[in-house]
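Supplementary notes for students who missed Thursday's class. We covered one full example, reproduced here. Read the sequence, then the structure, then the short commentary at the end.
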Amino acid sequence: IVAAAWGRVGGGEGRAPGAPGWILRPRHTAEGVLTGWNRRSEEAGARTGVPLTSSPFAPTVLEARLRQLQAARVSEVTKGGEGTAPGLGGHWAQKLDQEKWAMQRRKQRLQAKLQVRAQQLACEHRLRMVPQLLSAPLAERLLRWEQETPRSPWEEQLARLLREAPRRLSCEAERAHEAGGAPARLETQQQRLLAFLECCLLSGHLPLAHHVLVTCHGKWRQRRVLTLAAYNTVMLGWARKGSFKELVYVFFMVKDAGLTPDLLSYAAALQCMGRLDQDARTVQRCLDQMAQDGLRLQDLFSSVPLCQEEQAALLQAVHKAQPTFSPPLQPQPEPQVNTSPLLREIYAKEGPVSYLPSCTCLCGSCRLLFQQQLQEMATTVTVESRRRSCLTKEVLARCEQLSAESQLLGGRAGCGPGSSPGPSARRASFGAIDASAGLCLPRPQIGILKPHPAFTQLLATAAEHTLTFEAAEVPMLCPPLPWTSPHTGAFLLSPTKLVRSVEGTTQHQRLLDSCPPAELHGALDALTQLGNCAWRVNGRVLDLVLELFAAKGCPRLGVPAPPSEAPRPPEGRLPPDASPAQKAELRRELARCLKVAREMHSLRSDALYRLSLAQHLRHCVFWLPHNMDFRGRTYPCPPHFNHLGSDLARALLEFAQGRPLGPRGLDWLKIHLVNLTGLKKREPLQARLVFADEVMEDVLDSADRPMTGRKWWMEVEEPWQALACCMEIARAVRAPDPAAYISHFPVHQDGSCNGLQHYAALGRDSIGAASVNLLPSDVPQDVYSGVAAQVEVFRRQDAKRGVRVAQVLEGFISRKVVKQTVMTVVYGVTRYGGRLQIERRLRELSDFPQEFVWEASHYLVRQVFNSLQEMFSGTRAIQHWLTESARLIAHSGSAVEWVTPLGIPIIQPYHRDSKVMISGGIQSLTFSHSGDTSQRPNTLKQKNGFPPNFIHSLDSSHMMLTALHCYRKGLTFVSVHDCFWTHAADVEVMNQVCREQFVRLHSQPILHNLSRFLMKRFCSGARSPQHLKSTRTGKLQDTLRSVPKTGAFDLKQVKHSTYFFS
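Structure (token representation):
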């Protein structure tokens, strides 16, 4: 009784406690009762997550139920007398039998339902062929025609359908057409469905495409995504197979949708007739109906895109009815070729060409590589992490310290072990712990709850040692797709933008779409060529880096240390009577430690990604697809592992395809090594070769014992690249024939302050050209040293006049102090930014009086700008013209646009930010959005960004021209902006191409072409803003017409300059 009552309370009559809906069904024996209960309890626990048998009352209930059944059995046996057969009887036996039969009936009914549902699902999953028409007369006619197929051939039904097809669009289509077309979302859905149907046809899944078409057509809401092109796609597929019955099904759906067949519809029908060799009468009826619809037979061969085999089948059908018909001769379309004079040689068919294949593998290997790259279908790639974490004693001690601090703060807030703290206590407890150091501050803070670093480290230790990347973030295992349009190229499946832009901006894409396709051929082919370079990992360098990375890093060599090595804040607490200055100093120290810890974490994570990917690709050949930014500068698409990174990142990579060194290759390896050391920048090439021979013992020692030897390579500017070069030189000099040694090592040739080189060439500035090695010379010219010398001249003059800061700076003006400012002034750095750069350099000088840093930086940046004005007068004039033009264009309400010499349209993406505030009960959120269509341009950014962006577009054009011509000559070529890479054996050829293309580029009237384009774009009558005063437009016209005058520098001398790129 107690058990029964408890069961009713637990969720209804006969329900088990804690598991509603599970009925206690007793068995014929006591063991059966226990078995049934335990099984159902386990099932209910598995469903609800709560094990019923774990209840402390479960054994008591079972025992009571067992005694109840035993008592009932004894009672029935006693009443039955001696003649009663042994076994259960009476009330409980009848009840159990009834329940048993009820369960059997329920099981039978459930099995029957499952069988029916399985049949329904099988029917649903079966590909449908017969359409479900919404028009009752059409549906009845289709059914009658199917039943009368033996007496009424399908050709007759097709003729009737063509004859009875509507001559105009349906009412719904007309209304949509009058309203201006379908919305953008509907149009996107239609394009996706059409793309799916085309993919089904190309992959041999035509029945699936037909099934999808029938399914969408049979539902009124889904029918709106079907267009005539979708029906034609499926019809064309059945026509290719010669399946006339299925083609008529599609024609029924076209008529049911209220659409009129077009040329492609008739082409599919006639093509199918030609394949089936139909009689002339059937074909003629189809041609007559096409003529009644106003369609010409000749257009089937001139306007419909059909392959040669399909046109042959179509012509075979037409000849059945009209034997004398001959298709019109199709005029050959003029080839779309870039007309730029800079690319005329690239696309010329005459002349010797020695293109280098992107990989030497056979077709079978290529097919295997493409199959491996189809990992993009998973959208993510998981690689093994190179992180090696462990529960160290320091981490455990930190956790104990955290626990002690939490208990201490809890006690201070009045929270005992058994009490629950109130809101104020929780605020004091959590707010008084600094997130980075676990330090108690004297005043409570209200902010965001963050996990303690010790707890974060525990989580990191317990995490799985794998990293997951998006498929587009990992280098490709096969050659990238060639760039054929702004929408097609790079990865096989992952969509890639040709031009990198902020998400949501559309101005660059609109410009590219409106540009004639042939104008982009040069840029697209250059990107394809850069992506075709095959790479592999330098295993020896990777092993050394991983060893250091696992041993707490080495920041001096560019291997970041783990966050556990971050500086610790001072321990202990401030005394109660601490002064405000002491508190402020503590806060500054805490902020410094937090900043350093964050920077170390960021650097460590970046190195972790790079090294994990390098280990993942260790034994693979891979490729780096490229795209470009809005200026035309090219970048590899995979962000974590490429050749645009630091010294460490570059040292991990080498060419997968090797080339013999040849007679001069070893010399270029030695010169490249000396360039990486940074020790002989002012010396000629021959002196660098002599120096390389002098340090050959150190080079070989570095290659053989990098971590245990003299470690010469660690003291140079680019240590890891220098080490990789030492290893390559060691293998080459020890080879039986160094000239025959196959080298995979990339050798660099870097421009000498490339931005100033372009400015000097634009202005034909002889003085500036000599400073940046555009003129031939016996030794390399160093523009930074030249500027420093000019600044020193100004300083001496001011010191004689008694200027205090000039006297203090005596002996402190060096190349290093002015280099960064000189290098960035060509890219638009302001006096304020230049002052900050010089201030940082002065603070690095330990013997410079720090109290004069601010005044000295102001003085030096002024003198640096004056020196550049005197040394590069033409450069400053061009910069001023570009800045003023951009300022006036931005004031007129437009963003600055131009076209590069290779035809790439450029627009600056600098617009005013629009701020949207969302008010809430607790706080207000402000979102800042910079649109490119609805917002006015940011005048300051437009004018300051135009000069450097214009120069960047020129150096990108020079690089692309060099890349295309090197590819035409059979060279492997990649670049890091103005640093060009190739094999050691090909450096001289690449240098020749580089100089020739620079001269050809600047032989064009670049500034005058820019002036004409800006005049046409922003000063024509149609483009002139109506709300501005005419004086402003007139000033813009006068400014654009006043192109800076050029000097007398002869560009052809660049071809003979040894140190132009070196």
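Commentary. The chain has 41 helices and 20 strands. The two ends are 100 Å apart (CA to CA). If anything here is unclear, bring it to office hours.
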